[in-house]
Amino acid sequence: MVAPSTAESMTIEELENEVKAKPGDATLKKRLGWAYYHAGEPFEAKRILETARSANPGNVEILYALGIVLKKIGEKSDARQVFSEVVQLTENADVSPRHSMIRHLAENQITIMDRL
Asked: How many of the other CB atoms lie within 10 Å of CB of 79?
């Protein structure tokens, strides 16, 4: 079994402190947003992820996380728009395997929402 990286095993408080120390770190903000989401605080997750998105508008990992949060809180139209943005940003054949996977996840989310 592989141990989680340090940032993945940090508490919300520790992540908050790291974000304060490194306010431009999009990865930390994304992880903090996910931490709040998994702690049952999707509105705080939305706030953090929207801030991260403003600073890093083309970051598909932040966009995908934001889409999941928006879907969870019932903002399905906005979620669909964000997922569509992920798909559009990853249309290039030169994207990384990770971004290709995120594209497929976003496409699946769109399909699921279209069926509801």
From this structure: 22
Tokens for 50, please give them. Answer: 């929207």
Q: Which domains does the chain have, with CATH numbers?
A: 10-115 (1.25.40.10)
Rounded (5°) CA angle 40-13-79: 40
Instruction: Say how many CA atoms lie within 13 Å of 1 toward its Cβ.
Output: 2
- Give per-residue pLDDT as tens, 35-90: 999 999 999 999 999 999 998 999 999 999 999 999 999 999 999 999 999 999 99
Q: Is 102 helix (H, G, I), strand (E, B) or coil?
A: helix
